[in-house]
Fold:
Amino acid sequence: MEATKARGLRGKLDKVVLAYSSGLDTSVIVPWLREKYGCEVVCFTADVGQGAEELEGLEKKAKASGASQLVVKDLREEFVRDFVFPCLRAGAIYERKYLLGTSMARPVIANAMVDVAIEVGADAVSHGCTGKGNDQVRFELTFFALNPKLNVVVPWREWDIRGREDAIYYAKRHKVPVPVTKQSIYSRDRNLWHLSPEGDILEDPAIEPKKDMYMLTVDPEDAPSVPEYAEIGVESGLPVSVNGKRLFPASLLVELNKIGGRHGIGGVDMVENRLVSMKSRGVYETPGGTILFTAVRELESLTIDRETMQVKDSLALKYAELVYAGRWFDPLRESLDAFMEKITESTTGSVELKLYKGSVNVTGRSSPYSLYRKDVSSFEDSLIYDQADAAGFIRLYGLPMQVRSMLKQGI
Structure:
């Protein structure tokens, strides 16, 4: 892209759509874009469930920074329905623990940015991601996949600002109101699926996280001493109800976040391998998501046979890697999704879970498409299973081992 050559297309852009949060960085990016590129700046904010407090007064802040307008879109339902639930159906978990909260949110935001760019007639898009993180890749791969004609401007790869003090100085010099909200010692990413703090003591993987960094869940030690039971209804691999009440995807997740949060469900502390090849320590809170992953997995134990389950699990790892790497709109991810949709057609039923002090345990599961038959599994003989058949099966199954042993012994 021309926008990455020789420190950018200085003075050659007409209008830029900026992913805007109203924080210090994006507040400074607005005047920087106007100064360095001489362009109009349209700020864009996506509501993916980060909380109403983060959306208050955005238009006033954006225009005070020099933006011509602010566009806000409510993407909560789309985010859960079209991004979260497919990952859930696929069983996609990155490096054994991470339920891909930020990874799924970035492509839905970038997708909307491309639409806004068309709506306002912009010739470029911009984001405030740093050059060390994964999000820059997730945004830009989505831009490339959906509209390769758009120029991409990334201030953190061009400007001389190197920290918070530099940004504050730049803001004051350009008469941009500096956000006056109390600064947390952690940098947080939040959406309907999860919340993730970064920074401070978390940069040392040997130090235990403090209780005050958790916002969606209580510490399991402080959770109720009485367990709570939750019934999750699932249709074709996707959750549809909680305790018998059918809910739209976003509302269902909100309800389970409340239930899981009060029982300390879903806290994860891990060291992950970032896409840019460095290791990073992350703490994630995914209360509702942890409940849903457990429910769908337990129902699949009834409805999917062994060979299919093994293939599904192996492809789930690749699916998670693609999502983590920002390749949501890659044909491979879309093809894997078609497989996951087909293979979970019969994953319909209900699962009862017991929630207690950070743990999620299954207590019951049922499905009209269950492959489990009591008459086959019991110790009694059945019409389709004769225990005498096992002798021949074992001889054939163990034949390679028997032949190898005979060879070693000269038989």
In short: The longest strand covers residues 40-47. Residues 3 and 36 are 13 Å apart (CA to CA). The chain has three domains: 2-183, 188-304+344-366, 377-409. Residues 1-6 have pLDDT under 50 and may be disordered.
